[in-house]
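Re-run requested by the PI after the first attempt was lost when the workstation crashed. Everything re-entered from the original request form. Ligand of interest: pyridoxal-5'-phosphate.
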Amino acid sequence: MTRKSWNGRAPAGRIAYVDGRYLPHAQAGVHIEDRGLQLGDAVYEVCAISDGLLLDEEEHLDRLERSLGEIGMAMPMARRVLSLVMRELVRRNRARTGLLYLQITRGAARRDHPIPQEPPRPTLIMTVRELDAAALSQRHEEGIKVITRPDERWARCDIKTTQLLANLLAKTAARKAGAYEAWLVDDDGFVTEGSSTNAWIVDAEGRLTTRQLSHEILPGVTRRVIVAAAAEAQLRIFERKFTPEEASRAREAFISSATGVVPVTAIDGVRIGEGEPGPVTRRVQQLYAHRSAAAAAKLAR
Ligand code: PLP
């Protein structure tokens, strides 16, 4: 889309928030010595936007506060204010279906490894991106393929840090192999999670399995919502490790993230179940959609 065709109305995703200001993307930037940029000294969050509303906002803010705490930082502003800024950015971008990204870095300081004793003012940036709703629903309908890759990340994957290089390399390998996601496998041969999603399998009895929470995986907000909703719906869940071999024998598999529950139809070229999204995955998709819609409606009131 050219600038001229905007008709004075910015398309979604063009207004960013940087340290107290709402700016067009082209004018938004951070200091060249920002520790997030130079050292990856930063954490982030991603919230889904559905019908113009932020989904699971409280849970994302809880995780943000935790990630910050784990690297010795505090929230850059009161939660209530942060939430107002997030909503205002969604509004200014006129986003209906999309994602809000929020990064907090330790701020700009002379480049040095030790965290400054007098910490600089943290940098807070937010961007909004519209998602292709048709492509998203096609993925949800048809499912995706995954490959497995060694988990080469650091030892604190429970912190949502912007240091994503190992995740990016794994995701790129997946795309090159014609798959959508890479499931990461630890040194003992067990799946940890996807490069940007949590990993799930379903056995012949319809029971769900996903890896237990630890330093080795990100505590996914969607994972948490699914665990709660599935328990309420009397679905059985095991939170334990599983191998790619067990996954390839599973009846069904899926991934979860802020963009929802997506069926997995093949792992490393091996068809899962019938090679089509299965009934338990469909049920989890419904439970998740129902739970998120109810939460968003509550927020809108
Ligand atoms: N695991 C990793 C490594 C991720 O990066 C993400 C999301 O970005 C997830 C899992 C899913 O988390 P959530 O459900 O909070 O989006």
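Saved to the shared folder this time. The first helix runs from residue 35 to 39.
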